[in-house]
TrEMBL record:
InterPro entries: PS_Dcarbxylase, PSD-B. Coiled coil: none annotated. GO terms for molecular function: phosphatidylserine decarboxylase activity. GO terms for biological process: phosphatidylethanolamine biosynthetic process. Its cofactor is pyruvate. Pathway: Lipid metabolism; Phospholipid metabolism; phosphatidylethanolamine biosynthesis. Its EC number is 4.1.1.65. The keyword Lyase applies. This is phosphatidylserine decarboxylase. It comes from Papaver somniferum (Opium poppy).
Amino acid sequence: MTLQGTVVTDQVHQGAKDLLKNLSEKQGRRMNTADSVKDIPQFIKFFQDQLKMDDVKYPLEHFKTFNEFFIRELKPDARPVAFPERDDVAVCAADCRLMAFESVEDSTRFWIKGRKFSIEGLLGTEATTSFINGSLVIFRLAPQDYHRFHFPVTGRVESSVHIPGCLYTVNPIAVNSNYCNVFTENKRVVSIISTEEFGKVAFVAIGATMVGSITLSKEEGDFVKKGDEFGYFSFGGSTVICVFEKDAIKIDDDLIKNSARSLETLVTVGMTLGVARNKMESAC
């Protein structure tokens, strides 16, 4: 391809990205209008086998827009946290389809097949050498899921950095596409959580198709317990990625085995994710 051809192709790709972003944000804004409330019954009917309305904190008449329903809270006992007294046990951060890898190298071998993926690209200025080949957990949320995300570990929010970007879909086809690198090009918020048991944990909230915003309910400096709410995604699909420092966590075997077979595991907030390796070693 000539240099001129490459420039034209890049311009077309950028034009497609801009169009998708504008359409996504426009649809996201519409879901905040009073008129959008009429979409709620149809949405519930479409996903009736996957939505547990008994878990929802408020009755349907409480919601005045579709987005209010989409970011619905659950009843306090709807998502019990595994081993709440043990800070060395990490838990799942979202209701989602989960992929977990002991190293970034494993993630690119089994799952992320598109353009070259890197921790530096994902975390931006928050990337440090200890994260480079750390353990990677991908929590992929579908539209029908509960769209609030929670802390997987106990610690302190050290920093949160907003990174602008595209709004590509986060489905597996897009993740494996050569057209884009979903996780490093999409709009996202990168937070670093400092913990006693796991060292530092990078928590990345990634926007996707139709996501108008990523809202955090905790700020820099806040001390948090695992299972506490961290924030929510407005209307659309979205993803959370957690990166643990190298050799910091022993992820549950079933999650690793499924992921090695390119199988996503359905999980809910508060289920066990893994155990701190330093606690395992001290117990030996």
